[in-house]
Write a structure and sequence with these properties.
alpha/beta, 7-stranded parallel β-sheet, 40% helix, globular
């Protein structure tokens, strides 16, 4: 079966390509290389013994999307990762996020809905919950006003998918993930942001390696045990495997509703300072950091109730925070050498 993975050379996308190929799927990876590298194909090959078919393409180009689907009529499903993904950057440049995250989704769905197998996995986010009133967060939690343009694009994206599924043969699963971290155990692929990292863990590993002077901790006056924000950090390989399970659910027509939603996390929240301490423990590196002001768009606390994914999908996270951080550090050391 041919599966299209948009953003397929990115952090989560590349790990999902590996898991799909391990399960015997034929993969076509689409990526515009705006935050990734074609070198990732070599890493995927070194792990699986096979390179996916690669199409360099910007999904904001409607004609390119149309031509792609004309040339690939035997698509069994699409897993859509391609999007801009940094909360802070989205506050500073909202139009980039609305253009990239919304237009690309619309152009994909316009073509996908015409296929006999309109199976779609959407990379959503816990940011759709805003600042949830109850922890841990279930899929039934009320969707609060988004605290960033990034979160808003994920809310709008989910609404678009629901609307399209009502009037077409589209079947979709929305995967709301919390905070993906780590790298493949082989250290052949991992998170490699271009420019200054927007996410915590690559900033930690780059600081530990000496590429950054120090880590900024955005606020220590939140109403949490140590004053820093709390997040649910999930290993990227666990996350990738969940996408394969969700895809198989659609391919086997096991979905109960046209659009289903699942949280993907560990069910455990860790503060920024707890992550720093855990990294120092597994790496043996002392991490220089400073407390700075709060960052606009950040919620106080977010961690998942994963009961639905555990019971309905039969999926659960396997790696600890320490495992994830150790793999991220192994990856950082390899790529710098």
């Amino acid at each position: 079966m041919k599966i299209v993975v948009t953003g397929g050379l990115g952090f989560i996308g590349s790990h999902t390509v590996v898991e799909l190929q391990n399960e015997g799927f034929e993969v076509v990876a689409i990526d515009n290389l705006s935050n990734s590298s074609e070198d990732v194909l070599e890493g995927i090959y070194n792990i699986t013994g096979k390179k996916p078919l690669f199409e360099k393409m910007d999904l904001r180009d409607k004609a390119s999307v149309q031509n792609f689907f004309k040339n690939h009529l035997d698509i069994a499903g699409v897993i859509h990762f391609a999007a801009s993904k940094a909360v802070g950057e989205s506050v500073e440049n909202p139009l980039l996020y609305y253009e990239n995250n919304i237009n690309s989704l619309v152009y994909l769905l316009q073509e996908l809905k015409e296929l006999a197998n309109a199976n779609f996995i959407f990379s959503s986010s816990c940011t759709v919950y805003g600042q949830s009133e109850v922890m841990p967060i279930t899929e039934n939690a009320s969707v609060q006003p988004a605290m960033s343009p990034y979160g808003n694009t994920k809310q709008i994206g989910e609404e678009i998918i629901h609307d399209v599924a009502k009037v077409t043969n589209l079947n979709a699963i929305l995967l709301r993930y919390f905070n993906p971290i780590g790298a493949h155990s082989s250290a052949e692929i991992g998170e490699l942001p271009i420019g200054i990292p927007q996410n915590l863990v690559p900033f930690i590993t780059q600081t530990a390696y000496g590429l950054r002077k120090e880590l900024s901790v955005y606020g220590n006056d939140y109403p949490t045990p140590d004053g820093t924000c709390i997040r649910d950090y999930i290993h990227v390989v666990d996350l990738a495997k969940a996408h394969v399970v969700a895809l198989q659910r659609l391919l086997n027509k096991q979905n109960i509703e046209k659009v289903e939603t699942f949280n993907l996390g560990t069910g455990k929240g860790s503060s920024v300072l707890e992550v720093i301490n855990a990294f120092e423990k597994v790496s043996g590196q002392k991490l220089p950091y400073k407390i700075v002001g709060r960052r606009e768009g950040d919620v106080i606390s977010a961690y998942a109730n994963t009961n639905k994914a555990n019971t309905v999908l039969g999926w659960s996270s396997q790696s600890s925070l320490e495992d994830s951080l150790a793999s991220a550090w192994k990856w950082e050391q390899k790529i710098r050498k």
